[in-house]
Amino acid sequence: MSYKNKIKLRMGLGIFYLFIGVAIIFAANLGGIENSEAHSFGAIFAAIGIARVIRFMRLLKNPAAMEECETAENDEMNIEIMLRARGLAFSAYFIIGGICVTAFYFAGNSAAGRIAAYVICGMAAVYYLSYYVIRRRYA
């Protein structure tokens, strides 16, 4: 896949984020009650989508900048840094999630603790499935 097509795909994902944000805000308004968390989450999701679309549109219009980004993205040092940062963030997510589950149970909110535990287990399942799919593909 060419880098230009990757940028277009990423721009499409930004549009998808925008639509998800608008859908969250719309769904929160359908309930008829004030849901500031849903509005905030939807607004942030939409803002991220808009920022991504603007960034990638500018990149598509400037071939020199697109070539520079492609070179930086394919640089082995940047790839290593990205993979290490992703791994560290994933580990931190599990540690913080485990602390939250424990804190919810100690606070007497077992429903929130159970939901947090299910989310952590779901993320672990997605990770291991992804690992095996990628390992089979590249092994």
Total count of strands: 0
Poorly predicted ranges (pLDDT <50, ≥5 residues)? none
Instruction: Tell me what portion of residues adopts beta-strand conformation.
Output: under 5%
- Gyration radius from CA atoms, angstroms: 19 Å
Summarize the structure.
The protein has 5 helices and no strands. The chain has 139 residues and is mostly helical.
How would you characterize the overall build of this protein?
The chain contains five helices and no strands. It is flat and about 55 Å long. The two termini are 21 Å apart.
How is the topology of this model organized?
Elements: H1 3-30, H2 36-61, H3 63-74, H4 76-106, H5 110-138
Helix pairs in contact: 1-2, 4-5
Question: Which key phrases capture this entry?
Answer:
flat, mainly alpha, 139 residues
